[in-house]
């Protein structure tokens, strides 16, 4: 044993030597995990740090501080500080709320139950109570709570199947095997007698490497990754395992690999920041201009204006003080409440997402969860979707669907599983064809590595390959049921009679061979047969020559094409009768190859090649990799919304292409551009060639898709090739990336993000997708069945893939439209009000005097116009949900309504025009000052309060005008805001002199203002006259160049017939383009099937392409080799209970 | 042998659904289907098509035009007479000819031009607490807070108070017969109630007279009289001056014609010649200011200002014109769109 003093290895005492009071030498972290951002102490500093990382908060803090300098602030000392504090506290409340939610979900995980060995008994405890050195028991289908050393299992020789799709995305089951010295401890009694010392490496992120020693009775044994069960993986097809806890909580490899979710900010936030910086410079410029004006005025008028002569030697009269004064005066050009309004709006938008009943999955009783709310509008800007395959697009459930034997094509596509009574009927005919049927069924039942298990009278098939299990189940459903496996033989029930078949040899599947063979001796006849199943290409070239086989291949190809068009995975079955002599010649050679050390793989392949020839084709099978619900429809809709969909998978290319077809990512007449080169030069050339091809295809308006594997991708992402790859990637509407490692997925996401400033959405379900989800602009996790890993790293979690359609098309498009409106509107209203100060400065000697009362200025954003943007952000529906779901092209058109510089300038321009109109109309109305029949004049605040009232009214009506759907909250908020101001003015007018000196200027102003008829008539006139131009321009555009949204709304309102709708659309070419998308998606959804096409067309288009995935998801380099696995299994043996 | 990897089917769920109690328990995460949560509130989608915008524009026109007419008539009915006296040497006499009778209440104003009563530092230099009687409270009044010589607080403090307008006017009617009658004026109704009730109060008298109450204060440097001699803080001219104007060209109510004392003026000011005598004290020439005396009546809409009425009329008419334009555009576009669709049909 290494000395404990020096190394940083982990030393763990197991079993009896572990005194409950005796601590480990090292302190290990607890198994409790926390993803919270704050705790009680860290809240304030962290929160403030987060807040003051934003420019605008620093800005307002500075303003609040500057206001403390006497005689500089035109608006008093607290008019920024108070609203700013209000706004910060709203943000703080939101942060606290969100952190509490995180804590709840952590607690849920921490409270999962697990059985821990205490004093020889299994005691149920919670995950968080698991500590290093504990013995725990995990039952089938349970998750491992920590990284464990596998000690024993219910299976022979301590084998255990685990599913690691959460960790690495590989869908096949992995086989782990306990060390032989521990695998016998299959009862708690034995385990509690067990004692040992473990030394292993310190916690690390490496998932595929692990080394340690276990010392039992002074004998040290090495153990590695084959004995390590990782947190996040799941036990499958194994009744139970015992494990010793090695790494807990944040030390476990899963959590070591999960980065803290990066703080993502949406593109809108970034753009808003730029706009704010722009406004800041405008503000500085205005302050400089105004201060210059002030200097000039002073030069001309002081000391001549004797009533102001006291300012002649005023120290605060210098230019710089003037700049400061105006800086404070105009500071509100930057909307103080924008951030918090957006936060509030997004918070509630997230609640909409969480509460959407149409994104609620009854089966798993879960809804969509918006885990971050600041990306809501990003959902409406998605240009790329990167989707994981297994668990996301597919359910990882294989179903045996079709069977081709000779000229007959059995089964149909409608049934959930193979169901065709004619198969059995044909078998009963007893002719040559029925022999083929029998052979195929037998092969399905025999040629595999599946282990049967009898559990409670039901047969359960355990397999590392779900495809094989599906075939065996399929055979069983057709009365050839495989039920017992012993080391040298299998027993099948063939049409009611048990038949023992001796397994002579197994030639393993490898990805080079693309086939697997078994050599059997048929129990009944004693014949030796070679059964080979594999990809059509490898089987066809190993068939007997002759007309008979050619004909069989012809039939088979036709059937395979049929299967492939539905995206089924296909396998060909062939066989050959061997003579005793032939076999006995071959067998020793093969044995030798198995035992060879050098060049073993090649020797084995060569040996296999000698036997696997002159075979006869007996049939082909089709397996459906069951898709999640509504996957093709969803993908079609997303592609119609002009989103590029990428499928990233760890699977083989054939499988991946297969799924791409079945989930409508590509169609049978989509040209596949397959990049599968191994060297950089070849990849480069291929890419270059494909870019040219893509351009050509674009011209011909033909569909194409890129298929690239992990290795080529490595080259494609380096150096010069990157450019071509990017070019191609942007042109392809569908891309399939196969054989990807989790890290590569993240790299691809990042690469695409860098290619162009497009929003990339990544969607996945497992821990292997976490990196990709975190790298994407928006990460979506599927939370359905287990929903721990991907969902907890994601920004949005949805229970079903097809909810993505609603999440993007409805929530995304709406939220984007709303948030943009909220932002633009916030800028608008602030500029509209506060730029009036500039106009007034011209009439107030550039002294920095405000036209409005100071607190009304401060409360503009916090009270009087706080609600219109909020309701715009929450209740505006640019287009009905049903409609955008039906016409996904609208989604693309909404992206154009984006937050562009043009749009921003338009709003700013409008704000300036409005403020000019409001100020000068008020000025002209009030210039004469006498607006009562009592002949009095109102003074300074009469002008200010009137102008303010007109601004509030205009701004609130503008919100209504911009709102695309008026619901009662919108109307109430907009009208109510005006009312709120009226109420405020009344109350504020009554304050003086009751509370200190507050409100002296305002005293009685409400009664004064409201007793003027002229005021009320101006209130009707000025806002309406200001907004009339908006109304006119808007309607001109709607009539002349309606946007797709407007067309859709009009269509919806049936103001035009469908014909008129198209006619309207044809008016502008831009609209036409959108309409083309819109109507094509409409047609697409009505005609539906693009699968109906002739076989010849397909074969023409796909001449050189490998389309049929062959059904093998076999783990090639597992702890236990396939042959060994078969040889070691005896399904008749009684299993220990582990209790 | 059933497949063991079957996903939960709908039958299972509906089976649960049959049992009411269990449904609630099992489907505890089901969102509530309220219209608010599901964003399904009844909504009206305003879309500015010809069919909605044309009536809107016409309605605006139909409302604005009559209002404009009423306002214009109201303003037109107001009589106003202005006379400038900036350079008139004190005591100066000006002859005024009112071409027609000023019926009803007649208001007498003074106008100041190019006078920045809205300068920030000027506006700020006041203390409303002092004007309520708290004589020592001179915060914010700098530099007119404490008299440097006597160290006593200035009352009323501040730059506004210091620069109070101090011209006085007398208006007399000269009949054709040559009889000159003083026009009786009153300060009743010259200030807002709020100023009288809540903003300007003299300090408590404590059995003495007002000047005793002001004893420990100094008058503002520009004032010729002690404030206590002219009514203290409740001085009407002072209160009017303290309501600072919003714009550098402003009007302040000086007096209202008293229609109760002399039957000649019971109906306002009759047509004819008047003599305005001004005690011209207030210097404005130095900064290019201008002083005017204004005689005016009012209507329900206030003084003479036809702007709003004309604006209503203009915008109202524009709205009608726009409505017509929209109809034309609508018809024209409908036509051209038909043609366009014909073209596209030919192409197909």
Taking all Cα atoms into account, the compactness measure Rg of chain B is 36 Å
Shape, principal axes of CA atoms of chain A:
elongated
Low-confidence stretches of chain B: 1-25, 335-348
- Mean pLDDT of chain B, rounded to whole units? 85
Q: Show unreliable segments of chain A.
A: 1-6, 1055-1109
Q: How much helix is in the residues of chain A?
A: 40-55%
Query: Mean pLDDT of chain A, as a whole number?
Result: 83
Side-by-side strand order of the widest sheet of chain B: 1-11-4-8-7
The percent of residues in helical segments of chain B reads 25-40%
Number of helices of chain B: 9
Structural class of chain A: alpha+beta
Strand content of chain A: 15-25%
Distance between the termini of chain B: 58 Å
Q: Name the shape of chain B in a single word.
A: extended
Taking the alpha carbons of the first and last residues of chain A, their distance comes to 33 Å
Organism (chain A): Caenorhabditis elegans
Membrane topology (chain A): Multi-pass membrane protein
Family (chain A): Belongs to the cation transport ATPase (P-type) (TC 3.A.3) family. Type IV subfamily.
GO molecular function, one term (chain A): phosphatidylserine floppase activity
What are the salient characteristics of this protein?
heterodimer; A: 1139 residues; alpha+beta; Calcium-transporting ATPase, cytoplasmic transduction domain A; Rossmann fold; nine-stranded mixed β-sheet; 18% strand; elongated; disordered N terminus; B: 348 residues; four-stranded antiparallel β-sheet
């Amino acid at each position: 044993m290494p000395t404990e003093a020096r190394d940083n290895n982990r030393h763990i005492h197991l079993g009896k030597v572990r005194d409950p009071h005796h601590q480990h030498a090292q302190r290990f972290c607890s198994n409790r995990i926390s993803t919270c951002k704050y705790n009680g102490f860290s809240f304030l500093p962290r929160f403030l740090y987060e807040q003051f990382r934003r420019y605008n908060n620093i800005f307002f803090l500075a303003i609040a501080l500057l206001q403390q300098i006497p005689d500089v602030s035109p608006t008093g000392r607290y008019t920024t500080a108070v609203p700013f504090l209000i706004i910060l506290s709203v943000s703080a409340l939101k942060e606290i709320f969100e952190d509490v939610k995180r804590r709840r979900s952590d607690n849920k995980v921490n409270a999962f139950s697990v059985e821990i060995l205490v004093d020889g008994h299994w005691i149920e405890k919670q995950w968080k109570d698991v500590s290093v050195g504990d013995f725990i028991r995990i039952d089938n289908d349970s998750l491992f709570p920590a990284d464990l050393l596998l000690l024993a299992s219910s299976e022979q020789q301590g084998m255990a199947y685990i599913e690691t799709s959460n960790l690495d995305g590989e869908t096949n089951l992995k086989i782990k095997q306990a060390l032989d010295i521990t695998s016998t401890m299959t009862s708690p009694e034995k385990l509690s007698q067990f004692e040992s010392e473990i030394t292993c490496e310190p916690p690390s992120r490496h998932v595929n490497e692990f080394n340690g020693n276990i010392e039992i009775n002074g004998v040290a044994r090495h153990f590695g990754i084959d004995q390590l069960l990782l947190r996040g993986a799941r036990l499958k097809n194994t009744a139970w395992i015992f494990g010793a806890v090695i790494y807990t909580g944040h030390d476990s490899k899963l959590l070591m690999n999960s980065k803290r979710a990066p703080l993502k900010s949406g593109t809108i936030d970034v753009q808003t920041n730029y706009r704010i910086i722009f406004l800041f410079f405008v503000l500085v410029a205005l302050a400089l201009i105004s201060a210059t004006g002030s200097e000039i005025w002073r030069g001309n008028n002081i000391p001549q204006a004797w009533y102001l002569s006291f300012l002649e030697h005023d120290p605060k009269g210098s230019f710089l003080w003037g700049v400061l004064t105006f800086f404070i005066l105009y500071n509100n050009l930057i909307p103080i409440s924008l951030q918090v309004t957006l936060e509030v709006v997004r918070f509630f938008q997230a609640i909409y997402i969480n509460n959407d009943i149409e994104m609620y999955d009854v089966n798993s009783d879960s809804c969509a969860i918006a885990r971050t709310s600041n990306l809501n509008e990003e959902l409406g800007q998605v240009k790329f979707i990167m989707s994981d395959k297994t668990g996301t697009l597919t359910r990882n459930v294989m179903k045996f669907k079709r069977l081709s034997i000779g000229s007959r094509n059995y089964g149909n596509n409608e049934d959930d599983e193979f169901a065709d009574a004619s198969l059995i009927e044909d078998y009963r005919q007893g002719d040559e064809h029925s022999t083929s049927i029998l052979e195929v069924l037998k092969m399905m039942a025999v040629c595999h590595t599946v282990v049967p298990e009898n559990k409670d009278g039901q047969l359960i098939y355990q397999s590392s390959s779900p495809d094989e299990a599906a075939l065996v189940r399929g055979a069983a459903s057709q009365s050839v049921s495989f039920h017992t496996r012993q080391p040298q033989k299998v027993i099948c029930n063939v049409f009611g009679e048990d038949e023992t078949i001796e397994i002579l040899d197994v030639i393993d599947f490898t990805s080079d061979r693309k086939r697997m063979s078994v050599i059997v001796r048929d129990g009944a006849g004693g014949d030796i047969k070679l059964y080979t199943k594999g990809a059509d290409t490898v089987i066809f070239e190993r068939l007997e020559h002759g007309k008979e086989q050619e004909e069989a291949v012809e039939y088979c190809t036709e059937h395979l094409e049929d299967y492939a068009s539905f995206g089924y995975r296909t396998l060909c079955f062939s066989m050959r009768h061997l003579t005793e002599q032939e076999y006995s010649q071959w067998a020793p050679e093969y044995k030798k190859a198995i035992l060879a050390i050098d060049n073993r793989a090649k020797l084995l392949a060569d040996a296999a090649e000698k036997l696997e020839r002159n075979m006869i084709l007996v049939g082909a099978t089709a397996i459906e990799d069951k898709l999640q619900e509504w996957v093709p429809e969803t993908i079609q809709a997303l592609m119609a919304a002009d989103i590029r969909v990428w499928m990233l998978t760890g699977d083989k290319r054939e499988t991946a292409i297969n799924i791409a077809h079945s989930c409508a990512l590509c169609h049978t007449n989509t040209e596949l551009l397959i990049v599968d080169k191994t060297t950089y030069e070849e990849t480069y050339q291929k890419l270059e060639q494909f870019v040219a091809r893509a351009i050509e295809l674009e011209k011909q308006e033909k569909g194409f898709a890129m298929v690239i594997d992990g290795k080529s991708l490595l080259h494609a992402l380096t150096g010069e090739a990157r450019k071509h790859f990017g070019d191609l990637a942007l042109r392809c509407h569908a891309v399939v990336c196969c054989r990807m490692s989790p890290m590569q997925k993240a790299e691809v996401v990042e690469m695409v993000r860098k290619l162009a400033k497009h929003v990339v959405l990544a969607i996945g379900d497992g821990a292997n997708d976490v990196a990709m989800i975190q790298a994407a602009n928006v990460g979506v996790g599927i939370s359905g069945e287990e929903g721990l890993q991907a969902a907890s790293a994601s920004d949005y979690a949805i229970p079903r893939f097809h909810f993505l359609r609603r999440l993007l098309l409805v929530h995304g498009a709406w939220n984007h439209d709303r948030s943009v409106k909220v932002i633009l509107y916030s800028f608008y209203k602030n500029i509209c009000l506060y730029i009036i100060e500039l106009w007034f400065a011209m009439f107030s000697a550039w002294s920095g005097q405000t036209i409005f009362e100071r607190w009304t200025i401060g409360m503009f954003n916090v009270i009087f116009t706080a609600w219109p943007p909020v309701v715009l952000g929450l209740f505006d529906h640019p287009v009905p949900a049903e409609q955008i779901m039906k016409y996904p092209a609208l989604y693309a058109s909404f992206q154009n309504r984006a937050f562009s510089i043009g749009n921003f300038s338009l709003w700013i321009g409008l704000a300036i025009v409005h403020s000019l109109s409001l100020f000068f109309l008020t000025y002209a109305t009030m210039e004469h000052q006498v607006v009562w029949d009592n002949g009095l004049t109102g003074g300074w605040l009469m002008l200010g309060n009137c102008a303010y009232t007109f601004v509030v009214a205009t701004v609130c009506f503008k919100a209504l005008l911009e709102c695309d759907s008026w619901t009662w909250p919108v109307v109430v908020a907009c009208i109510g805001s005006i009312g709120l101001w009226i109420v405020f003015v009344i109350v504020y007018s009554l304050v003086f002199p009751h509370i200190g000196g507050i409100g002296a200027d305002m005293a009685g102003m409400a009664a004064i203002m409201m007793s003027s008829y002229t005021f009320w008539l101006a209130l009707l006139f000025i806002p309406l006259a200001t907004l009339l131009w908006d109304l006119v321009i808007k309607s001109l555009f709607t009539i002349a160049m309606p946007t797709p949204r407007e067309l859709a709304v009009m269509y919806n309102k049936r103001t035009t017939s469908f014909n008129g709708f198209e006619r309207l659309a044809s008016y502008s070419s831009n609209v036409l383009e959108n309409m083309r998308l819109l109507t094509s998606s409409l047609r697409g959804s009505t005609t539906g099937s693009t699968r109906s096409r002739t076989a010849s067309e397909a074969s023409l288009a796909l001449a050189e392409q490998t389309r049929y995935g062959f059904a093998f998801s076999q783990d090639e380099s597992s702890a236990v080799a396939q042959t060994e696995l078969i040889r070691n299994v005896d399904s008749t043996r009684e299993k220990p209970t582990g209790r | 042998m059933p497949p063991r990897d079957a996903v939960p089917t709908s039958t299972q769920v509906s089976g649960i659904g049959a049992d009411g109690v269990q449904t609630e328990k099992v489907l505890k995460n089901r969102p509530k289907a309220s219209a608010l949560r599901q964003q399904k509130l009844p909504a009206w989608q305003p879309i500015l098509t010809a069919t909605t915008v044309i009536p809107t524009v016409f309605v605006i026109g139909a409302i604005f035009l009559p209002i404009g007419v009423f306002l214009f008539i109201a303003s037109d009915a107001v009589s106003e007479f202005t006379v400038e006296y900036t350079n008139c040497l004190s005591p100066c006499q000006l002859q005024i000819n009112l071409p027609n009778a000023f019926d009803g209440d007649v208001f007498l104003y003074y106008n100041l031009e190019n006078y920045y009563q809205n300068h920030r530092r000027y506006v700020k230099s006041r203390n409303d607490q002092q004007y309520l009687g708290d004589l020592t409270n001179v915060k914010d009044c700098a530099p007119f807070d404490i008299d440097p010589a006597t160290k006593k607080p200035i009352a009323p403090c501040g730059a506004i108070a210091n620069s109070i307008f101090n011209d006085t006017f007398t208006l007399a009617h000269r009949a054709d017969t040559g009889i000159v009658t003083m026009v009786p004026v009153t300060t009743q109704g010259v200030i807002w109630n709020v100023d009288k009730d809540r903003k300007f109060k003299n300090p408590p008298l404590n059995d003495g007279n007002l000047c005793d109450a002001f004893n420990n204060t100094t008058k503002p440097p520009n004032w010729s009289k002690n404030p206590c001699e002219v009514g203290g803080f409740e001085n009407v001219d002072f209160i009017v001056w303290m309501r600072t104007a919003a714009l550098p060209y402003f009007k302040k109510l000086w007096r209202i014609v008293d229609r109760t004392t002399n039957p000649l003026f019971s109906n306002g000011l009759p047509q004819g010649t008047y003599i305005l005598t001004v005690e011209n004290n207030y210097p404005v020439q130095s900064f290019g200011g201008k002083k005017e005396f204004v005689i005016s009546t009012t209507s329900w809409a206030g003084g003479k200002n036809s702007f709003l009425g004309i604006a209503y009329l203009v915008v109202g008419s524009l709205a009608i014109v726009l409505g017509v334009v929209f109809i034309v555009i609508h018809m024209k576009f409908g036509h051209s769109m038909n043609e366009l669709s014909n073209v596209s049909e030919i192409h197909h």
